Fold:
Amino acid sequence: MVIREAGLLFRGFTLIKAGYHKTSSDEIDTDLRSALLTALLNFAESAFSTKIVEYLEFSEKFVIAFTEDKIQSIEGREPEALITYAILDKEKKIDKVVSNVVEPLLKEVSKQFILKYSKKNLSEIRQFDSFRKVMDEIFGLDVKTIDQRAKGLFF
Structure:
């Protein structure tokens, strides 16, 4: 399993995105993609009365896994949805990989983010730049390809 990208979405916008490996050769508008993902998740929740979609499969290559928590912003009256996502390579038994490996990692990312940024102004995106290091530590080797892991053993 290789995590190619991970991030946090709030109110349909990307708060932070950590790209580890490209998923396409084209430049993608992150705000447009964030809004689409948020809309898809909200639709699934409303239409099917489910808590949240665990993952979506895109083509034969990629899967996007999600978790949802709540965070209180300084300008909000009540906690709002904070969506944590990871784009990873599709593999066999993806449902077990998502529930046993990816979901706990995403929950840890959102937990650490909420501890650090709850009751703050979440519209100031630059303040989250340093959180990328926290994400890197949480994901650890799960963002490295097999070749990168092997090089780390010998060099």
Notes: Residues 94-117 form the longest helix (24 residues). DSSP finds four helices and five strands in the chain. The longest strand covers residues 62-71.
